[in-house]
Amino acid sequence: MSGAPAGVPDTRANGDNSMSFTATLEPAAAAPARPSDATMSPPPPIRRARTGIADRLFAWAARGAALLTLGLLVAIMASLVVGAWPAIRAFGPGFVTSAVWDPVRQEFGGLVMIYGTVVTSLIALLIAVPVSFGIALFLTELSPAWLKRPLGTAIELLAAIPSIVYGMWGLLVFAPILSAWVQRPLQGWFGQVPVLGALFSGPPAGIGILSAGIILAIMIIPFIASVMRDVFEVTPALLKKSAYGLGATTWEVVWRVVLPYTKTGVIGGIMLGLGRALGETMAVTFVIGNMNQLGSLSLFEAANSITSALANEFAEAGPGLHQASLIYLGLVLFFITFVVLACSKLLLARLAKGEGTKS
């Protein structure tokens, strides 16, 4: 045989004792023709079509829900403006600065109600925020394991009590205790002090702005405390353990680690409590006194609020300026709530803008 087959090494030794390969290669067989991507038939798009339809339906439903909420908000505002238009045309912006409320003479002003609403809500916040912070701090950092669950459940149960029960309890039980053990001692201690004496003047009857503010504080404590507790618990344990490992105290860990990490949730909880305090009706109606007067700045005197005025007078108000003025009060309350929400959003935006800066 003259040579090895093609592609098989030639074992014959040549002069330089090296192995050679045959260089003759047979032409490779032609590969079968592969259809191009254009000629290939795509798989049946049944699953993809169904998924696309579901996505579009979900997007339409979500968009519709958002537009429905916005439409309801605009409709409520428009209905309030239409209902209050006779009072707006008769009294104008001076309605919010006038303290006169006389249905007989058809003279109406909302200053007394606005003052009562704002002051009682501020008193409620001044009491509820520190107490709620202490509750949340105890439940997340200091409480033993066996006490966390029952104590947290008991605090949340306070939010389930109807507001009319709070009002009845405040009028029949809390008002006499407040009169005997708080109002009279405060008058004895600070009655002659120039500024504090004016705040604590008046008859210590147990009802009034201070009583309404304390009842509101008791009502909003469960909301603020629950939100604070939940946001405190989402703080990563590694951050707190690292701070404790560096020698920080519990207060330093909460103030320098937990609060900066959860400030958005904390402010949201406070705004939730403030919204509840601004809109509360029945409990305030029982204990605020329902008097359309603004004789002094005393916290002991009977007063009125927007929600109390609406609850007491709307059913008996005839068509005309009286009814329109009550709707005007509702529009003012709507505006106050909007201002509070806008201020909270601006505060959160400012806090977010300052994140990462050197304190």
Give short descriptive properties of this protein:
1% strand, mainly alpha, two-stranded antiparallel ribbon, 11 helices, disordered N terminus, globular, 359 residues
Protein model, in words:
The protein is mainly α. Helix content is 66%, strand content 1%. It has helices spanning 46-91, 111-142, 145-157, 163-190, 194-199, 209-233, 237-245, 250-279, 282-287, 306-313, 321-353, and strands at residues 101-102, 107-108. Strands 1-2 form a two-stranded antiparallel ribbon. Helix 8 (250-279) packs antiparallel against helix 11 (321-353) and helix 10 runs antiparallel to helix 11 (321-353). It is globular, with a radius of gyration of 37 Å. Mean pLDDT is 84; it is low at 1-31.
Summarize the structure.
With 359 residues, the protein is an all-alpha fold.
Give the strand tally.
Answer: 2
> Strand percentage, roughly?
under 5%
Which structural class is indicated by helix and strand composition? mainly alpha
| Distance between the first and last residues' Cα | 94 Å
Radius of gyration: 37 Å
What sort of overall outline do the alpha carbons produce when their principal axes are compared?
globular
